[in-house]
Amino acid sequence: VQIAKEPISTKGPRLTAEIFSLRTAEVVRAIALREIDLGFGYNLAAPSSVTMVTIARMRLVVAVRKGHPLLGKKAAMRPKHLAEYPSAAPKAFTGVENCESHPVLERWGVKPHTPLIFDDYAVAEALLETTDAWALIPEWVVKRAPGLTAAISPPATLTPLSVSAMWPKAHPPGRVLEGLIEQVKRRLAKDV
After folding, report:
1. Cα 116–chain centre separation
2. Helix, strand, or coil here: 181?
3. Tens digits of per-residue pLDDT, 64-107?
4. Residue 140 in 3-state DSSP?
5. I want to staple 60 with a disulfide (CB 3.0 to 4.6 A). Which of 13, 14, 48, 159 is the partner?
6. Alpha-carbon distances of 83 from 39, 51, 107, 139, 180, rounded to whole Å
7. Exposed, middle or buried, 115 (CB in 10 Å: 0-12/13-18/19+)?
């Protein structure tokens, strides 16, 4: 989020916000370069010039469409059957570990075949609802998607996911941005 002050009267400044979506690594880079004032992102280490505060903790789950053949298997056996189906994964980005190589998959002995790539959770939802693919995605995505269900819900200790608010260390957020952080935090709390 980039906020700019433009005086419009003697009573106070007018605030303008530009809100856009970026990959977490791009958000961190833009904050470190002071191109943006505030950002939100998933599990990522940040340089010392960026302040990160965790605002939500959640987990990744294995999502499939309702009626998927995997759901016919006993819950304890589902990880063993994942390799029988194609997977969908977020588009890879330098410096960020991809969900298709998540340590929980290695623990389960799964080597996913990933012919489907998505760059947005709405695209992931559409892919999963229309195919027999599965994806390791945030639980909140599954809760919001009426056509999806969590086929495997590992303990949060195996697939932890945190959401952080980030800003330049030299430029802490003011009241407006603090209010935005609190709104996002409350919204995420409803989804977890």
Report:
1. 18
2. helix
3. 999 999 999 999 999 999 999 999 988 765 444 455 678 899 99
4. helix
5. 159
6. 36, 39, 13, 21, 41
7. exposed
